[in-house]
Structures are given as structure tokens and as C-alpha cells.
């Protein structure tokens, strides 16, 4: 059975200093985003354009994907279509086998995480080296990335130092970031030089040209793609944009929303294979068509994976990415994952305060908190809500339907909390576990109003 978000979050917050540090670090990124955004007077126009371009692309997907395939094929790129994650993995495995390849480097691609590509290949005796620094760190630790932009954000430099000591033989206890980065750099350089095949993600695929763009801050996608004889780029079909000129909108939105930078350090444009190189693009559905057909959730496919919604979410910041038990965590993950498996991920839309901060920062204007609320309704309708929650909600429905019962329960509740507080203040009460119980008032607001309402008016 899939562990639940609430249980995993409970484990995460047992380490209070780490929880506070995680919260503050991500809030720092959110503040950087705000400063970067406030420097752009046309920011709201950019958001609107980004949203409209994505809307238009989603409404004309088949046309643009066909155009992209034609142009890319004419450029010498081989296009593959995968209906599922399994098919995506099989296609990549076949390319590896056909070329008899042993050494593979991969830059950050949330799609390959979604399809569990590394595990798939590992079970077939093929090792893939993740070349993004954060991803390499979590790969050494046999963990999943906890954030889509900052995969190792849950780790402190002391954790990285220990991991590198174990796997790269660095000096024990040396936590100097410069020293650790240099060790990683040397290690990854060797992997790039040896690599025969490079796998990258795709941030934007341009129908008009058949080219695609990969954004990284470390240049690792370029290093891999430029040294390997075979380059495979993996993309969900929603990455398509109609024209090259639209990149101007998205590249400005992406980096500022993600890390508060004016531009990602490397925005690499790939158009065709270089002489003697093979270039493949695997275009994946894996549930996206279903999501496109769900009117209330279609908008989620506009996501450009900037993670601004993660950094601002009070639940994500305090519960850590692994508590979402899926490859894409945070608010947008809680919308995308129930589409893939509603039962296993039925807890995720409830991992939100519905405060709307995610919607406010989203660069492509996805109505994230409204979709989370809609998912809750879908999940209840489909019977995937927890029995305890179901009983509680049914009880509340009765309570709110009968004013006399509501008043009586309130009176009993106030008396219990005042006279025998241990009945509510104990570890069996999930509300009490991480909170102080409020002091009960002597009377209800209704009773107070009855006594004082008229005199206040006069
Ligand atoms: S939903 Fe919006 S804010 Fe969240 S990752 Fe996607 S584009 Fe960024």
C-alpha cells in the first residue's frame, strides 16, 4: 500500500531544525522570485501571454505535434511515440541495445523520473549516471529527487559531505561547498568524457522549426549531448509550443519563477544531430490525453515545471518533497498524480491549505488551488477518501443540517474542553498532535450576540 502524505510528513517534521531550515530555504527562493518579478513591469502581460500560448497549443495539439514531427524528421531527428511510461522505457532500451551502449549520462528530466527509467534500465543491467549535481547526490543515496528544480533541497551540506565521502572518497567531515563541488565536478567530467549516449529532457519543443530547448544551470545537458554519439531527448507531448518567437515569453517566465534568476544559465537549442551523431526524440502521452479530456484539470498541462508553486506552498515547505510519494511533488504534482492513479494518490489533493498562493505565483496562470479542490470532490465521488474522513464529513453534514444538534454539541464540546480537557488533549486526537488546543469560550457567539447584539446597535 502506498504510504500516505500525512504519515510521511509526520516523519519529516520529527526533525524540527531540518523542517525549519527546509521551510526557510524555500521561502528564500520564493523571495528571490518576487524581487526578480517586481523588476519586470510587464510581468502580468508575460503571464497572460504564456497562459494563452499554452492554451492555444493544447487546443491544437495534434496539428502542432504533427508539424513538429515533420520538421524534426526533415532535420534528421528520429521521432518515437510512446503511449505509456513502459513504452517510453522500451524505446530507449531498444536504442541502447541497437547501439550496444554501456555508458550513459542523463541530465535532469522529470519525465524519466515519472516513467522510472533508471530502475527499468538498471533491472536490465544498464547503469545511467545522473549528471545534474543535485540528482547525482540523491542517486548516490538511492533516493528520489524531492523537488523538480532543486532535487536535493532536503539535504544539508553535511549530508552531501557524508555521501561524497562514501562514494567519491572525499575527506571525511569536510563540508566546504567549494571542495565538495570540485569533487563532484571531477567525477562528472570523467562520466561525460566516457559517455556514449546522453539522455536529456525537453523544456520546449518548437513546432515551427522541429527544434527543442533544454534549460539547465550547470550546462550538464550540453556536456552530455555534445560528447555522446547518441542523444535521446524525452518529452511529454504538452511541451510543444507553436513558434520560436514564443520562447522569448517562456524563457523570461521560467527562470524568474524558478530561482529568481533573469535567465537560466544555459538555454541550449538543439536543431539537428551533428555529423555522425544519432538524435532521437521520444514523445510521451502516459495519461496526458486523459488529463486533456478532463475539463477541470486540462489546464494543469500548461505547467512549465518552474516549481514556484512548490516554493510558496506552506504545506510543501514544511512536509518535504518525499512526503508526496510521487515523482512530481508539490501542488502541481497533487493535480497531475491523481490522473495517473486516483486511488494511490487520493491523499495528495488534501495536502494543501487551498490558500491560493500557488495560483498567484504560477507563471502560466494555472488555477492550481481550484483544481486541488475539484480533485477532492472527484476523489470523494469515486469513493477513494479515507474511511475516517468519510465518517467525519458525514457527521459534520448532520451537525450543520440541524441547528439544535449543532448548538448542543457546541455546548458539550466547550464543557468537555474546560472541565475534562484530557478527553481532547491527547495523542489520539490528530488535531492535538502538532497543535495547542484553543481555550474554549464560556458561551457561543450566538449566545453572546443574543445578550449583547441589540445593546451594541443602540
Ligand atoms: S504549476 Fe505553475 S508554478 Fe507550479 S511548477 Fe507548473 S508552471 Fe510552475
Automatic annotation (TrEMBL):
Location of the region described as Disordered in the Swiss-Prot/TrEMBL record: 433-458
Keyword Transport attributed: yes
Keywords tagged on the record: 4Fe-4S, Electron transport, Iron, Iron-sulfur, Metal-binding, Repeat, Transport
Occurrences of domain 4Fe-4S ferredoxin-type (ranges): 293-323
Xref: InterPro entries: 4Fe4S_Fe-S-bd, FTHF_cligase-like_sf, Helical_ferredxn, LUD_dom, LutB/LldF, LutB_C, NagB/RpiA_transferase-like
Feature: compositional bias, Basic and acidic residues: 433-450
GO biological process entries: lactate metabolic process
Protein name: Lactate utilization protein
Example GO molecular function: 4 iron, 4 sulfur cluster binding
Lineage of source species: Bacteria, Pseudomonadati, Bacteroidota, Flavobacteriia, Flavobacteriales
